[in-house]
């Protein structure tokens, strides 16, 4: 955000402390009295500048029309991640329905995902239970990460089916290994496997 003059900083500091203490903003006259400004038009001007610079936001639905803007560092650290359907932890099934909703997630969970690279899928099946991934869990996937041997990935098999498995690059085929000792791995030609992303986080409903 842009730097503030000394007077603008004084106005902002008072508004911030007032809101944090009382949970609602001060009036223009209260701001003026606190910072030594008798002219309400001057206070209005400072408040407008703080809005323009991104420190405050206007809230026209209330009589007291200002609120604190979310700090830039907090904005950078949260990303809306779309929920795009289901994926099999078992026999591969068709994945990716229409986006049903988005969840705001800390970027620390996303392993450097850029906007548009992360998505959420609901897991169906029990082939990954020994890795702690249960049917009904939601996995967060970063499509911008490469997958190495042993990574848990979402992979599309033969063009139109997708599954979550642990991947191993072997010759002459790729092995998609379940984490369930009662299930067999999937073997597929390299040309028939598309890695859609690496699983980077798990969400569970209680």
Walkthrough of the structure:
The protein folds into two domains: 6-69, Winged helix-like DNA-binding domain superfamily/Winged helix DNA-binding domain (Arc Repressor Mutant, subunit A); 76-203, Umud Fragment, subunit A, CATH 2.10.109.10. By secondary structure, it is an alpha+beta fold. The protein has helices at 6-22, 28-35, 40-52, 72-76, and strands at residues 56-58, 66-68, 78-88, 101-106, 118-124, 138-142, 152-157, 161-169, 173-177, 186-189, 193-203. α1 crosses α2 (28-35) and α1 (6-22) packs across α3. The mean pLDDT is 85. It is elongated and about 80 Å long. Strands 4-3-5-6-11-7-8-9-10 form a nine-stranded mixed β-sheet. Strands 1-2 form a two-stranded antiparallel sheet. The chain is built from four helices and eleven strands. The two termini are 39 Å apart.
Features:
4 helices; Arc Repressor Mutant, subunit A; alpha+beta; 9-stranded mixed β-sheet; 2 domains; 11 strands; two-stranded antiparallel sheet; 206 residues; Umud Fragment, subunit A; elongated
């Amino acid at each position: 955000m842009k730097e503030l003059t000394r007077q603008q900083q004084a106005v902002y500091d008072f508004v911030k402390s007032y809101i944090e203490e009382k949970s609602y903003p001060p009036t223009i006259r209260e701001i003026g009295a606190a910072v030594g400004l008798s002219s309400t038009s001057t206070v209005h001007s400072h408040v407008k500048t703080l809005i323009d610079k991104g420190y405050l936001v206007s809230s026209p639905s209330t009589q007291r029309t200002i609120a604190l803007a979310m700090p830039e560092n907090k904005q950078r650290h949260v990303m809306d991640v779309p929920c795009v359907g289901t994926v099999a932890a078992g026999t591969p099934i068709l994945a990716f329905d229409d986006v049903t909703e988005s969840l705001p997630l800390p970027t620390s969970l996303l392993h450097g995902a850029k906007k548009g690279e992360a998505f959420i899928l609901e897991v169906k099946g029990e082939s990954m239970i020994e890795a702690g991934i249960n049917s009904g869990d939601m996995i967060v996937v970063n499509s911008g990460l490469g997958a190495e041997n042993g990574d848990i990935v979402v992979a599309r098999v033969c063009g139109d089916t997708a599954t979550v498995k642990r991947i191993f690059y072997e010759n002459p085929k790729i092995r998609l290994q379940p984490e369930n000792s009662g299930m067999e791995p999937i073997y597929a030609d390299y040309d028939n496997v598309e890695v859609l992303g690496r699983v980077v986080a798990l969400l569970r409903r209680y």
